[in-house]
Structure formats: structure tokens, C-alpha cells
Inverse folding.
């Protein structure tokens, strides 16, 4: 099956499989059953078999999955060996943290430029990389052709900036503002990251547990 | 339908509905059809009708949804008006950014304590809140009873720390390390946040687009 045909929800789960299989591979584990993998990952064994069946026959009855072969195959589908050129814009607390915290090479990306509108921030270095002033963005894009822009700017600035970056050839946005970015060109990729969504899952869960307790 | 009966995947989408409906409410928009909402949110209209049907009849044929009533109802389900007490541990770049960037009150949470193992960080202030030394954690928990712990510590420290926090009464973990946290007590809530997962979706998407281009 070509990877175009794998459903979006399976694709969304691939990074998680990749992470768990990578950890098993590092531990020297050669094979694993869907049952063992399900216990570690908190998914059902049948979900795992169904997901992994989408892209080939690495599981064998009575043997399980070949851990490293499956890890490599998922890495190939996700394209983790790529070197997509990324720029990060907005070097406030959050932008600096993203620049330092995220393991870009493991995600098939290379961080090639940092930008900020504040002249006191631009000109300085972050982890050995110079921070450029935002006014130099167009020239940089014409020369370096970044494909991905990581947006850590104030909410009010994000839409206009993203539209400008589209005209400069950026094809994918990793958006950390509190706004959902919407762009006219449907071929442009957008990942709106809302950290608070997962915190709300904890709030919801605590509330539900409180209600269960008081019902018993 | 009680909220216990709403499926986990619908619950995961609720923060997104809440965000979009909140923005519409602020703009003074009184009602919206599933079709209009679907265009704004990038979901299908039938998905939206199906999701929102799970918790009551706010949509009416030919009228659409009452925006503010639906926003309030989703907020009630998520419990956004709660004041769950949260502590954040690990005030490196990333922890400081989380403490500053996340809108805790909108997520039903209150940040009541900051902790770090570094004696040069502990004792200082962050946004008017004192940073405590990690050695004072047990005493603090006995006194203040935080329910949520936000973990921004090094990967190698996270498992042991979380286990200790469980014994101190913490019921929910928001984990920002690169490790998937696994705890023995199934009633403890864990949200493992892997930022890189969404970056990998961009890498995957760029790769797929490249392949489509070269196939045409």
C-alpha cells in the first residue's frame, strides 16, 4: 500500500510508534508481539495490528514484529532522515525554549535561521546561531529557501507574517501562537500547536474523577 | 447523555471546539451552522453534527447552533472554571517558557508553585512567583495539596520524580520530557506532550508532496 493511502489518523500515530520502537531498538530488543507493544503503548493489540498492517507485513504469527525493521520502515514513511530547512521566528521565552528543546535532526529538520523583531535580541547568538532581524527575512528566504517556518511571535502578528512567508516560498508552518492559522493556499501545511489542549484533558479527567467519587 | 459516555476521541476534540466557539462568541456571533463551523475548523459538517450531538441538542434544523450556549456547555464539560492547583518542576528554558506562555486560568488551573533542583535558580522569582528548591517539595505538597504536576525536568529524572509525586498526592501529570511516563496507578492521569510529533507531521507532509510532484 502506498503511503498516500494510509489514513490520516494512522499517520498521526506513527511518531508514537517510531518513538517506542526506537527505544526498544536501542535496548537491543529484536522482536515484540502486538500484545507486548500494546501494554507498553497503552493501545489495544488489535489497534496496533490494524495500524501496522497498513504499511506491510512486518508482523508474523507466533513471531511478532521485527523491532528494528519496523522502526526503519516507519522512519522512512515519516522521512526522519530528511533535512528540511526550518527557520524560527520570535525569540521570546517560548521561541528560545523551542529552539533549544526540540530535537530537530530526529524530525528530519535542520534549523537554519532565527529571527526576531526586537533589535536588542537580533544580533545576539542562541546556541551558537546568530539571531537575525526580521527585516532581513525576505533576503534570507530568497537565498536559503527554508521550507518550514516555526512561529513563536505574538498572536496579533502571526497571520500577516505567515501570509508573507508563503509568498517567500515557505511551504509548512509550525504555529505556537494561541491563534489557529488559516491560509488561502490549501497546499501549505499548517500544524497549530495548542499546548493548553492537553492540559484541558487533565482538568477534564480530574473533574470526571471527582464526579465518580461523589457518585459512589 | 452524561459526559462519562462521550467517547475519548470526541473529548479530545472539545478544546478545539471550545477555542473556536469562544472566538466567535467574542466577535458577537450569535448562531452558526455546522457548515460554517466546518469551514472554519477544517472538519466536515457531518463530523461536527455527530460530535456535538453527543452532549445535547444545541443545534436546530434551519437555525444552527447557539454559539455562546454551546461554548458554555463545552466549558462546563471540560471544567474550565475549575481551580485545580498545579506545580511546575524544572525551571530551565523550557519550564520558564511554559510557566509564562500557558494561560492556566483558561484551562481550569492555577499555578501555585515552581520548583528547581539548581540552588542558583531556586530562591529567585519568576513572574512574581518564588522558585522553591526541589528539596522542599514534600513539605509543600503536604501543605498545599497540588493535584497537577507539570514536569519540565531532564528525561533521566522524570520517572522517579513522578513516582514520588504520586505518593505526595499528585493525581495528574503534564509531562514535557522526551520520555513517555508510565505509572503503576491507573487512576493517575498522564498527558505526555511530544512536541516533535507535530513537527514530524510537517516533515511527512513535505515528503508526500515532493513524491506527488515527482509523480506528475
Amino acid at each position: 500500500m502506498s503511503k498516500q493511502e494510509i489514513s490520516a489518523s494512522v499517520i498521526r500515530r506513527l511518531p508514537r510508534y517510531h518513538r517506542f520502537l526506537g527505544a526498544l531498538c536501542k535496548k537491543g530488543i529484536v522482536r515484540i508481539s502486538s500484545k507486548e507493544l500494546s501494554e507498553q503503548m497503552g493501545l489495544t493489540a488489535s489497534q496496533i495490528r490494524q495500524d501496522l498492517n497498513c504499511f506491510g507485513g512486518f508482523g508474523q504469527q507466533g513471531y511478532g514484529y521485527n523491532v528494528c525493521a519496523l522502526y526503519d520502515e516507519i522512519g522512512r514513511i515519516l522521512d526522519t532522515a530528511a533535512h528540511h530547512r526550518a527557520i524560527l521566528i520570535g525569540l521570546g521565552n517560548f521561541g528560545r525554549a523551542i529552539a533549544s528543546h526540540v530535537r530537530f535532526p530526529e524530525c528530519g529538520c535542520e534549523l537554519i535561521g532565527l529571527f526576531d523583531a526586537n533589535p536588542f535580541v537580533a544580533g545576539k547568538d542562541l546556541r551558537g546561531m546568530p539571531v537575525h532581524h526580521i527585516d532581513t527575512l525576505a533576503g534570507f528566504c530568497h537565498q536559503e529557501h527554508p521550507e518550514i517556518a516555526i512561529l513563536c511571535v505574538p498572536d496579533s502578528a502571526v497571520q500577516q507574517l505567515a501570509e508573507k512567508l508563503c509568498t517567500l516560498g515557505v511551504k509548512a508552518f509550525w504555529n505556537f501562537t494561541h491563534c489557529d492559522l488559516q491560509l488561502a493556499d490549501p497546499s501549505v501545511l499548517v500544524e497549530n500547536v495548542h499546548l493548553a489542549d492537553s492540559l484541558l484533558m487533565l482538568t477534564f479527567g480530574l473533574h470526571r474523577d471527582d464526579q465518580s467519587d461523589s457518585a459512589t
In short: The longest strand of chain B covers residues 109-116.
